[in-house]
Amino acid sequence: MQIQDLHLLLSVARLGSFAAAARQANLDPSSVSRSISSLEADLGFRLFQRSTRRLSLTEAGRTYCGRIEPLLEELAAASEQAMVTRQSAAGRLRMTASVAYGERCLVPLLPRFRSAFPKIQLELLLTDRQVDLVEDTIDLAVRHGPAMRGDLITVKLHPVRYRVCASPDYLKRCGLPPTPKDLTQHDCVRIDLPEFRDTWHFRDANGAAEQVPITGSLLLSSALSLRSCTLAGLGPSLLADWLVAADIEQGGLVDLFPEWRAAASSFDSAIWLLYPSRHYLPVRVRMTIDFLRQYLNCNLNN
What we know:
- By secondary structure, the chain is α+β, with helices and mostly antiparallel strands.
- It contains eleven helices and 15 strands.
- It has helices at residues 3-15, 18-25, 29-43, 59-83, 99-106, 110-116, 168-174, 194-197, 223-231, 241-250, 283-301, and strands spanning 48-50, 55-57, 91-97, 120-126, 140-145, 153-160, 162-166, 189-191, 199-203, 209-213, 218-220, 237-240, 254-255, 261-263, 269-275.
- The strands form five sheets. The protein has a five-stranded mixed sheet, covered by helices on one side. The protein has a three-stranded antiparallel sheet with strand order 12-7-13. Strands 10-9-14 form a three-stranded antiparallel sheet.
- A hairpin with a 4-residue loop joins strand 1 (48-50) and strand 2.
- Helix 2 (18-25) packs across helix 3 (29-43).
- The N and C termini lie far apart (55 Å).
């Protein structure tokens, strides 16, 4: 019985198929099947119920996996503590984020990250699709929105405030809307997401909230494109502070309603770090989480 076979067993149980576990481990599916069969022969009981449609753990298999998973985690932790210190975090780390957040907030930190952790081999996947952390072997994911729910561990990086912005050139041509409800008279630039597309939400200093229907002739799929079009004077848009704070400070954009809170749906939006739920985290992952919490909060609060 090999430790690698036990890791394959847990991977098959988590992913629900030999083929998915084989892809994750870069192995042939037949070799994964043989490893599981060999384990079953050594143990003397079936680990999985097999059918043409599904693969599921037997009761004995669930009990066995539940007992060996923390043991394998402890073994990995002991090995890493013996080889790596906090000052020399090493190995491959796969992280994903949206294209806009990655370009604006993560990529500028890479020189500092490389200097701090020269032995970490970082793979940064920037995509606007929802990546499956387990299926795609992702160590850390950066996500936007209200408090996250589910089986993943979540760490709050920083709150997000949305602002309705327009360029000075646009305001010269079309005028400054006095109140949020006056946006109905403007050709807004919108992003093609359900909660952003048709209605924007506002809350005044006294807590009174209102919904404003939004229309516009330009609908975009990219937050970076949305910012570019707003800077070019094509209309007002709803943009996150991490994306446009510098533009507002430098005068490229104007916050139309600085006394109001704006949102697509929830006023309690934030940027979160997500990672698969497990007791043991490699040193490189723990150190990366600490690094991002320190420098993203620092950069956004300055």
